Protein: Small CPxCG-related zinc finger protein
Amino acid sequence: MTEQPWADWPEILDAIPIARYRCGTCGGTGLSENDTCADCHGTGIDNHGA
Structure:
């Protein structure tokens, strides 16, 4: 049986710090440049699927 190269991906991806579901503009704080983030409208949650 051939080893599947993606078999270790879950462990590898868990080791990489990725801010899942956080707004890429404000980093999840809801603020950008001391004002409400225009990208997520202050929620801190990525609402664009980016």
